[in-house]
């Protein structure tokens, strides 16, 4: 077996015993030696293959602890034309979108509204062909009753000048009798069927490339069972390049228990994760559950999405089946009740419960989280996106908001993620938000509640080993040392020495998962 040596790099290992090394030797998927190049070569023996990293900074692969990859993948594969105000603007959006798709893949999406275009004309296939000549495209109107298709899409469903209008539908035709590309009502059904069968596997294959390009090597996926099935298919076909820890939707908990699923089941590429419960809603829609009413919204304390008794019952049910629990909680009352419910359910050896978002807490509950070993799964960019909302809606409430520093000091394990597609999945945006508490434009100067900022080392740890810990994988991932998986990224910006405002612009050069280069900047 050939040993692969990654060399000529400044490798930040995440291992406090040996924080930086020059080279790593990898056998199969695992690291077998880390250290100076001569030392690593000596340990590796004769049969080696060298991978030169050109002096780049190398970090453990980043691990997103909360991401909706199916929603993200679907969003990438669909174009949204609701905001377009002219045919030209719609076509520009379509052209921009088409370049991100795999060659030959369908272009779906749409929701165009020609009534609000500067010239409210019915678009035609020729316009669509001009930006989408080499792939089929089918775009429903905003009301869903009309589909705008290009020539290739019409060919693929067998619609031409000789096709009669179906019952309950109409194929719009030009003065020569040729289909214009506008299909009304039942005439659009063949395209609708194709859209609904949109191939999540294909979308996830494209999305995983995008996530690898951002430096992510592992994810905790929070989406549904269709996403699980797609990943299992990909895994079976040897197409999975990103490691997946897959949450169970609460509506599927009983079925998952019946089929014998439990947290941690699987292998290093695909594991069953926790069940995802909901404690409350969100701040922006005034539905997160608060002990005090929102400012300016008298008497509104938000919504307890899962009643307390049901929350406790679900946690007990999951634990009895060796399934860990991840509960969404944003408001202080939601967080308080979730901690109560975890405490009441008692400790189950080996199961790590988590609170997703953990945004606004009473300080006493942070202490309790630490005591109970509850992981705070947080998204640093939510903090900087929400600054105005918090100031408007939670004014005067004495809460710890996005309190990373308080959490760490109290001993609460932190796991970082993006919640994409709510936010962009770029982990370097998260690291920047965590170390500055400023928005991407640098405001507010000095950071919002700057006492809660983290160092880059702490932020990186939460986005690597912290996420691995939340999944019970801290002995496999997050540290570049012998015996660990060789999941690493080479980057163009050394986050430990660069100015903080350059961190969000970091470009990943090479992404290695399981010792193999899975993505490389061309
Ligand atoms: Zn989410």
Outline:
With 522 residues, the chain is an alpha/beta fold. The strands form 6 sheets. An 8-stranded parallel beta sheet has the order 8-15-16-17-18-19-21-23.
What would you say this structure looks like, in words?
With 522 residues, the protein is of the alpha/beta class. Helix content is 31%, strand content 23%. It contains 18 helices and 26 strands. An 8-stranded parallel β-sheet has the order 8-15-16-17-18-19-21-23. Strands 3-2-7-24-25-26 form a 6-stranded mixed β-sheet, with helices on one face. The protein has a 4-stranded mixed β-sheet with strand order 5-4-1-6, with helices on one face. Helix 2 crosses helix 7, helix 10 crosses helix 11 and helix 11 runs parallel beside helix 12. It is globular, with a radius of gyration of 25 Å. The mean pLDDT is 94. The site of zinc ion has 4 residues, from loops. Zinc ion (ZN) binds next to loops.
């Amino acid at each position: 077996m050939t040993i692969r040596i990654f060399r000529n790099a400044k490798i930040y290992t995440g291992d406090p015993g040996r924080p930086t090394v020059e080279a790593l030797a990898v056998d199969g998927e695992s690291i077998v030696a880390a250290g100076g190049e001569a030392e690593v070569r000596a340990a590796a023996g004769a049969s080696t293959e060298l991978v030169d990293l050109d002096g780049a900074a190398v970090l453990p692969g980043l691990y997103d602890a909360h991401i909706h990859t199916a929603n993200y993948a679907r969003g990438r594969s669909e174009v949204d034309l609701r905001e377009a105000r002219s045919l030209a603007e719609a076509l520009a959006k379509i052209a921009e979108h088409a370049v991100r798709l795999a060659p030959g893949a369908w272009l779906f999406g749409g929701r165009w509204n020609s009534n609000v275009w500067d010239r409210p004309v019915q678009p035609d296939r020729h316009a669509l062909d001009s930006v989408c000549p080499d792939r089929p495209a089918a775009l429903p109107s905003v009301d869903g009753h009309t589909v705008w298709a290009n020539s290739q899409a019409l060919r693929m469903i067998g619609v031409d000048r000789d096709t009669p209008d179906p019952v309950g539908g109409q194929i719009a035709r030009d003065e020569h009798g040729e289909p214009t590309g506008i299909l009304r009502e039942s005439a659009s059904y063949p395209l609708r069927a194709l859209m609904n069968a949109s191939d999540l596997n294909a979308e996830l294959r494209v999305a995983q490339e995008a996530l690898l390009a951002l430096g992510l090597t592992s994810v905790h996926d929070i989406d549904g069972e269709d996403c699980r099935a797609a990943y299992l298919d990909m895994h079976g076909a040897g197409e999975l390049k990103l490691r997946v820890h897959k949450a169970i939707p609460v509506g599927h908990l009983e079925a998952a228990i019946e089929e014998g699923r439990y947290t941690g089941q699987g292998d290093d590429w695909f594991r069953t994760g926790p069940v995802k419960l909901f404690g409350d809603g969100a701040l922006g829609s005034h539905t997160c559950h608060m002990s005090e009413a929102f400012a300016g919204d008298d008497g509104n304390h938000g919504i307890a999405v899962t009643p307390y008794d049901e929350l406790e019952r679900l946690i007990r049910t999951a634990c009895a089946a060796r399934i860990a629990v991840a509960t969404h909680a944003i408001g202080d009352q939601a967080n308080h009740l979730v901690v109560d419910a975890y405490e009441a359910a008692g400790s189950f050896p080996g199961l790590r419960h988590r609170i997703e978002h953990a945004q606004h807490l009473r300080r006493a509950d942070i202490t309790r989280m630490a005591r109970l070993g509850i992981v705070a799964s947080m998204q640093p960019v939510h903090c900087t996106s929400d600054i105005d909302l918090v100031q408007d809606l939670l004014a005067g409430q004495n809460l710890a908001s996005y309190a990373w520093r308080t959490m760490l000091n109290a001993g609460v394990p932190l796991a970082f993620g993006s919640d994409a597609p709510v936010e962009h999945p770029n982990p370097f945006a998260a690291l920047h938000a965590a170390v500055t508490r400023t928005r991407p434009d640098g405001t507010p100067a000095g950071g919002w509640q700057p006492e809660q900022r983290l160092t880059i080392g702490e932020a990186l740890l939460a986005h690597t080993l912290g996420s691995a810990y939340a999944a019970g994988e801290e002995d496999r991932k997050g540290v570049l040392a012998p015996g660990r998986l060789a999941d690493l990224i080479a980057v163009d910006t050394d986050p430990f020495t660069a100015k903080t405002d350059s961190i969000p612009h970091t470009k990943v050069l090479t992404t290695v998962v399981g010792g193999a280069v899975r993505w490389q900047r061309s």
